[in-house]
Design brief:
Helix content: 55-70%
Order of helices and strands: EHEHEHHHHH
Structural class: mainly alpha
Number of domains: 2
Distance between the termini: 28 Å
Number of strands: 3
Strand order of the largest sheet: 1-2-3
Length: about 130
Amino acid sequence: MSPGLRVAVLGSAHDIEACDRWIRRGCDIYLDTHRSLECLLYCIRFAEDSNVVVIDRDVSRAAQTMQVQPLGALTRRERDVLRHLRQGLRNADIAQELEVTEGTVEFHVSRLLSKLGARNRVEAIGHAHALGL
């Protein structure tokens, strides 16, 4: 297991405040307490092996109720940046991958945060996932 892997097991999928707190803490896995130990272990392995955030359907639905819908559709470049954010890349790495300046990446990240109603990258990834993006 990765020492940085963070798991949030919430008392209730309807506890929106808890969802919000754990999203801000940058957790990797969000499950409600009704999930079995086998499910939790599977999710931990999957998140670790795939380097992705795992959010179960119940928590995702609860998170959607607290989110602002995007102000507009994401551009192709914003989707590219979001894809790289999900991989955990820094702005400099994204700029190199997309062959643009770091300032351009900062602009796109700022637009993503605004459109997704997010305060940081981790929250943007969670919001995008909850919105099916």
